[in-house]
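Risk register update: the risk that structure generation would not scale has been downgraded. Supporting records follow, first protein first.
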Amino acid sequence: MNITPLIWGITILVTIAFFVYEFFAHVRKPHEPSIGEAARWSAFYIGLALLFGVGVGVVSGWTYGGEYFAGYLTEKALSIDNLFVFLIVMTGFAVPRIYQQKVLMIGIVIALILRGVFIAIGAALIANLSWIFYVFGAFLLVLAYRQARGGHDDNPANGVFMRMVRRVLPVTDEYHGDRLTVRKDGRRWVTPMLLTIVAIGFIDLVFAVDSIPAIYGLTEEAYIVFTANAFALMGLRQLYFLIGGLLERLVYLAQGLAVILAFIGVKLLLHALHVNELPFINGGQGVEWAPEIPIWFSLLFIAATVAVATAASLIKTRADRRRTEDGTVRPVTDAQKESS
């Protein structure tokens, strides 16, 4: 792809404009979005992302178009997993629903900035260190193993990082609207709202480290990596309110993401074996038996994995609910635990 500085500049300015509009049109005045509002804007941003992908295919060729769609689908799936952690953070800090939009908006902007930094670092590493694909591939396999082992049982609000923050900053016990700081007794205090944003920013850093090697396993074009990430994050705020109840039903999402990360990790290692001129591999010529996985297969595999994980999750939670309603399984409530 031949992406000029002008195209980069326009893309970044348009992305910023969307987020500025989001803030002034929807976030500035605290409120909880209705299902209709969340659905309309989610559909708009998903449609815009798909239209952009078609544009990439028409203008630059469908190899690049396929890379964009595979990258967008992967980043969207990872972003939904990110939403699950956001939900845990919101619950842990007891953020009122009308203020959650602001927290999400700031968190998404932080995520985009961090991913932009890691995209630039990744592009520089790929351009100068051909063996970096081995590192990315091995890293993704480790991430896949961690993801497969299980969910998000720990509450980030009570993690080591947040305990350190609380020791450094004086924190009020209650919220003061959507303010980040408040003055009490002649002293400046931070509110739980600021702590929530700090927690989400820290989580965004972790997810940026995870997601960028994954998409670089699908394309080496930094422009595709950036736009796929930007479109995956756009509309994430509305998606949070639209599928908030559905998130808890996606019980196999972690396993589905583990399969995707493992697949991309293997794809990266095969690519590295095929192209790297390392002295200890076939005299520095790479190995001929290492196949290159085509992008169309990657796209189909990722889409099928997401579909199977989603369908299996919904089938399992529906079956569990039916067993509970039939009296086969009676979950113990918190009140029953306390009484006992």
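Supporting record for the second protein:
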Amino acid sequence: MSRLKPKTKRFSNRTILQVLTGSIAAYKAPDLIRAIRQEGGRVVCVQTACSREFVTETVLRTVSGERVYSEMFPKDAPFGVLHTSLADLPDLVLVSPASANFIAKLASGIADDLASCVCLATRSPILIVPAMNDNMYNHPVTQRNIAQLKAIGYRFVDPVEGDLACGRVGIGHIAAPETILAAVTAILSVRGRRK
């Protein structure tokens, strides 16, 4: 009788730092985290203050099995300089969901909280998954910010048409988890394993 070879997991020995911003789509983050962990990945979460209105630290800690970071200067930080230590940690920074405000901050180089400091300090690839109102997404300023970030190497998973928090249907609904995972896989397979 032949033994079945264990299935190779896509994200074995990979660390993904997931930044959650102030979009209602943050409530879907636990499902994405669970899917990454099922594929062998480690997920460390950084939350903006607004994201905490949509998903709690307790939920993220439970599904990730990791400490969740949101404060720039926590008294019990495990690292000397938290934002640069977190920036050096991952194989990939996944900003999901990404609000219009956070995208604008990245495009402007504003680093006024832990999440934006980590993004500015990291040298790992950054994958941005926008989720917002359709008018906000289609606004020329948001589109300019996205184009500017793409021009310097940021990757994006575009939003899709779907139900929005305002009650309309339009482009701005967060992409499906499978689509996000496919983009993560593509980036990590090109990047190779960290030493």
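The first helix runs from residue 29 to 38. On this basis the risk owner (M.S.) recommends closing the item.
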